[in-house]
Amino acid sequence: MNFGNRTPTIVVLKEGTDSSQGKGQIISNINACLAIQETLKPTLGPLGSDILIVSSNQKTTISNDGATILKLLDVVHPAAKTLVDISRAQDAEVGDGTTSVTILAGELMKEAKPFLEEGISSHLIMKGYRRAVSLAVAKIEELATDVSAEHQDSRELLERCARTAMSSKLIYANADFFVKMCVDAVLSLDRNELDDKLIGIKKIPGGAMEESIFVNGVAFKKTFSYAGFEQQPKRFTNPKVLSLNVELELKAEKDNAEVRVEHVSDYQAIVDAEWQLILDKLEQIQATGANIVLSKLPIGDLATQFFADRNIFCAGRVSSDDMNRVIQAVGGSIQSTTSDIKPEHLGTCEVFEEMQIGAERYNLFKGCPQAKTCTLLLRGGAEQVIAEVERSLHDAIMIVKRALQNKLVVAGGGAIEMEVSKYLRNYSKTIAGKQQLIINAFAKALEVIPRQLCENAGFDAVEILNKLRLAHSKGEKWYGVDFETENIGDNFSKFVWEPALVKINALQSATEAANLILSVDETITNKESGAPNAGMMPPQAGGRGRGLPMQ
Predict the structure, then answer these.
(1) Per-residue confidence at 252, pLDDT binned at 50, 70, 90?
(2) Transcription regulation as a keyword (predicted)?
(3) Mean pLDDT of the 244-249 span
């Protein structure tokens, strides 16, 4: 067959597929990431702003937590989603530094842009960045100070790290109160596991933030109760706690079964048997000597009144999450039958009480011997305020957890970034070629953190950065931005401490994200891949694999 000296069009991708490639494509992706960076920049640092986000269902969120903002922004650009992912990973791994990691990644891309426009290969830039980040991490590890030797009281170290993590949060005005709460919460966990999921957080609207309560054990909202619960005791000392997965409710079986009887007395015998079944269960529970009976399933009015007559407290329909934490705290185990309960199946605590907090009643188990869990009852005027308090505490708790596992700390307030930047600048002068420029660009990108801290605080960023460069060149390695004097100062001696792990993780994640964006040479958007008969017509020319007719 003669095609008139033209090669036939080869269709590889379906119709409706859009693709773009080359240098312009990388720069377009970088611009999308910079748009995300610009959104987060004003939220960095102790004097950063909060962002008000209104979702499609009109739910409002006020936050300055980078991971929360990016999660709620609903980013659709595929390259910009990378920044959302690294922010989320930083939040899950370390807990703090979510805004810093996004700003750093954006700045690394911004510094790479002029090189790309000049025609330098993206692989050369990536190689330089990888070299720079390995040098930076090694320098941070060298500079990091193990303060556990100097400060025998490790609690003091943890409180200082928590205070630094809270400095940019809504709760900083109440930092003294919440720092103690955070450290107590982490120290109550099992030292080997430090599972922060075992710290329960309950939000109770109303009251002031400082009315929040730390419970060294478990607290949960009072479950639905039937008539008769008013007569039950609401406080016990050293009670025995029985946890069940058994339904203690008398149900009319006429809905579930069919019984044929010849005499009325036969029907009465069946009803009596139903009653006897549940009464046997209740007597078996009473025989265990338990003072508190909890069940995941309903505890009906008959059982409630039976327990009230015998001075036993009961709560049915307890959520699985709360029940598991009760077991962790008081000991014992969940029983699925009442017929074979042994003393070792029961747990205990120092004090159990039911308290009125705000408009709700809460059941509190305090002073638990097995306590590998705790509960924070948070108060606050508005729902959004309590939600932001919870997010702030999460960050601080994660930082305390990491500081407990890894005692190495560095100075915050842009001090470590300036010192690493100076080190990389000096190192770049010892090598020749394009790598010198790229490592120097990496060093310049690190300065975005102290610069943004100054801008958000309303200081003269150019003046402060010049002073910092001068101080670091004279060997003042811990000098950073001092927000109290609106100048520079030794942040290490002022106890502005952060775990070295936070900085290392942020640098590595930011560099990986920047390199990932730089390595993407072509974007293919397959909009109509799911459509019937898609790809039957040859697409328009443009891009690799798009069926370009060859001359």
Answers:
(1) low
(2) no
(3) 86
Cross-strand partners of 361: 356
145-152: long-range contacts (C-beta < 8 A, 24 or more apart)?
145/408, 145/409, 145/410, 145/492, 146/407, 146/408, 147/407, 147/409, 147/497, 148/407
Q: What is the DSSP letter of 378?
A: E
- HEC letters along 379-413: EECCHHHHHHHHHHHHHHHHHHHHHHHCCEEEECC
Helix H, strand E, coil C: the string for 72-85 is HHCCCCCCCHHHHH
CA distance 91 to 188: 22
| 219, 366 Cβ separation under 8 angstroms | no
| Single pTM value for the model | 0.74
Alpha-carbon dihedral 201, 206, 208, 209, rounded to 10 degrees:
20
Token look-up 């943004």 returns 452
How many other C-beta atoms lie within 10 A of the C-beta of residue 28? 14
Q: Which phi-psi region, left, alpha or beta, contains residue 535 (left: φ > 0; alpha: ψ -120 to 50)?
A: left
Give strand pairing partners of 410. Answer: 498
CA 480 to the chain's CA centroid: 27
| 348 neighbors 164 (Cβ within 8 angstroms) | no
Cα(73)–Cα(515) distance, integer angstroms: 24
Rounded Cα distance, 62 and 470, in Å: 38
415: confidence class by pLDDT, cuts 50, 70, 90: very high
Q: Token pair of 497, please? A: 């401490």
Q: How far apart are the first and last CA of the chain?
A: 17
> H or E stretch including 366?
strand 360-366
Tokens of 64: 């300055």
Domains of the chain by range and CATH?
17-147+411-526 (1.10.560.10), 154-217+376-403 (3.30.260.10), 219-255+263-371 (3.50.7.10)
Report, as residue numbers or ranges, the catalytic residues.
65, 98-99, 395
Q: Are 507 and 136 in contact (CB under 8 A)?
A: yes
- Residue 51, classed as helix, strand or coil, is strand
Nearest to 130 by CA among 532, 511, 535: 511
Query: Could you tell me which residues come within 8 angstroms of residue 10 by beta carbon, excluding any fewer than 6 positions away?
Result: 547
